[in-house]
TrEMBL record:
Transmembrane segments: none annotated. InterPro entries: Cyclic-di-GMP_PDE-like, EAL_dom, EAL_sf, GGDEF_dom, Nucleotide_cyclase, PAS-assoc_C, Rev_trsase/Diguanyl_cyclase. SUPFAM superfamilies: EAL domain-like, Nucleotide cyclase. Residues 79-212 form the GGDEF domain. One of its GO terms (molecular function) is cyclic-guanylate-specific phosphodiesterase activity. The lineage of its organism: Bacteria, Pseudomonadati, Pseudomonadota, Gammaproteobacteria, Thiotrichales. Its cofactor is Mg(2+). Residues 223-479 form the EAL domain. It holds the Pfam family GGDEF. This is Diguanylate cyclase/phosphodiesterase (GGDEF & EAL domains) with PAS/PAC sensor(S). PROSITE patterns: EAL, GGDEF, PAC. Residues 1-47 form the PAC domain. CDD domains: EAL, GGDEF.
Length: 479
């Protein structure tokens, strides 16, 4: 029906019997009820249930529902479909430079550009963040590769303008064929994600087709499994603290025992898993801040116990990942735990890598300054690995330089490495910093480091990593 202004509206017809005084039916009462608002609300709620609120595209829940239907069709009718997983490259740059509002506008503009590339029977969805999914129904691999490449070129050609700045973004696309032999929904999504990250690992802004014998994709899937295991380890407290002694080369009667704290993970069979096996997955899936915070809490708890039980302080170095540098929750946790455990802040040194520090030196500098204000100290690890190491060092108020182990491993046989270590040590001392050489694995290397004048050493020749719980009481440093 239409109202007086010519607008359409919906009505509901309600009928009720008209009764006389003897309750005999003598007619009917008919009423029209305007239900336009209720109808519109219902339609809006139905739309929102299956669409992304920002872009208007199909949302993840509806996307997975449609993918499940295509899998069923492929299993029963031997139909062939394709799944594309798209992850934007350089999107974080726009968000960090211009803010999240600019990022939202970019996503909406890209959504409008991608839809015309697809066929009417295809599905384009926003899966979350800067990730999109495409379902190509009844599509052979060759045709799907062409469509995926067109999607990639469309994104690459796009230029996003914001406040006088122009940005270009790329997209890495993982492609998975859906056939009668395809696995479950989760398996197919895992394969698509693995193929997408294989595209990123090969240089970004490219299309990668998943193959059963694809080593890169298999590695990515293995990391996905690691992410699940890491979360379980966090939930079930399956990490353990280890320590390695850091030894001063100059005799001192007042030397406090100095340990670097290391993390290990306990596997399903009780085996000890080294960090090299799980840290890459933890970094890729954003779990390093949680692991860092677990280490901080447990280290400071142990240090507090040592103070109460032995009345002798220890000096501990705790590694912080790049993902934790600058985080307010990390700063807050450190402050809370120092107060709770009654550990002097100047007994703690946080170790960060040179690579993480120079990724955002201004932010790293602020983070370091705040912790140093509390009394904590800092060590810069892997120093000398970057081309601009000495230049960035001026911006970072650290206390220790840990010389990159690359220069230490063959020190006894390489005069260039000896010159590099001497140079780093000299500049560190000019700046008032202490130097630490790691990866010391033989007596000859130790003698050369002593001659150069390095302040501290650590390595398997001096001390292997051991469970922290084995330190029942602190002890005087060996020399």
């Amino acid at each position: 029906m239409r109202n007086q202004q010519g607008g359409e509206f919906e009505v509901q017809l309600n009928c009720a019997p008209l009764l006389d005084t003897n309750r005999q039916n003598i007619g009917w009462v008919v009423a029209l009820q305007d239900i336009t608002q209720n109808s519109r609300l219902q339609k809006m709620l139905t739309f929102q249930a299956v669409h992304d609120t920002l872009t208007g595209l199909i949302n993840r829940r509806e996307f997975e529902k449609r993918l499940e239907s295509l899998l069923d069709e492929a299993h029963h009718d031997k139909a062939e479909h394709l799944l594309c997983y798209l992850d934007l490259d350089q999107f974080k740059l726009v968000n960090d430079t211009c803010g999240h509002r600019a990022g939202d506008v970019l996503l909406k503009q890209l959504s409008s550009l991608l839809k015309p590339v697809l066929r009417q029977t295809d599905t384009l969805a926003r899966l979350g963040g800067d990730e999109f999914g495409v379902l190509l129904s009844h599509c052979p691999i060759e045709k799907g590769m062409d469509i995926a490449e067109t999607l990639r070129k469309t994104v690459t050609a796009f230029r996003f303008s914001w406040d006088g700045q122009v940005f270009s973004v790329g997209v890495s696309i993982g492609l998975v064929s859906i056939t009668e032999v395809s696995g479950s929904l989760d398996e197919v999504l895992s394969q698509a994600d693995a193929a997408c990250y294989a595209a990123k690992d090969r240089g970004r802004n490219r299309v990668h087709l998943f193959q059963p014998d694809d080593l890169q994709a298999q590695e990515r899937q293995g990391q996905i499994q690691w992410a699940s295991r890491l979360q379980e380890a966090l939930d079930k407290d399956l990490f353990r603290l280890y320590y390695q002694t850091i030894i001063p080369l100059e005799d001192s009667d007042n030397t406090m025992p100095h340990y670097e704290i290391l993390a290990r993970m306990i596997g399903p069979e009780g085996e000890v898993i080294p960090p090299g096996a799980f840290i890459p997955a933890a970094e890729r899936f954003g779990l390093m801040p949680k692991i860092d915070q677990w280490v901080i809490r447990n280290t400071l708890a142990w240090m507090g116990d040592q103070l109460r039980q032995n009345q002798q302080p220890v000096f501990c170095t705790i590694n912080l990942s790049g993902a934790s540098i600058g985080r307010d929750d990390c700063l807050q946790l450190i402050q809370e735990q120092l107060e709770k455990r009654k550990v002097p802040a100047n007994n703690i040194c946080f170790e960060i890598t040179e690579t993480a520090a120079i990724a955002d030196p201004a932010n790293a500098g602020r983070f370091i300054a705040e912790l140093k204000r509390m009394g904590c100290q800092f060590a810069l690890d892997d120093f000398g690995s970057g081309l601009s190491s000495f230049g960035y060092l001026k911006q970072l108020p650290v206390d220790y330089l840990k010389i990159d182990g690359f220069f230490i491993q063959d020190l006894a046989n390489n005069r260039i490495d000896q010159a590099m270590v001497a140079s780093i040590n000299n500049i560190g001392h000019i700046m008032g910093l202490k130097t630490i050489a790691e990866f010391v694995e033989d007596a000859a290397t130790l003698d050369i480091l002593r001659q150069i004048g390095v302040d501290y050493v650590q390595g398997y020749y001096l001390s292997r990593p051991e469970p922290l719980e084995s330190l029942n009481s602190v002890r005087v440093m060996p020399r």
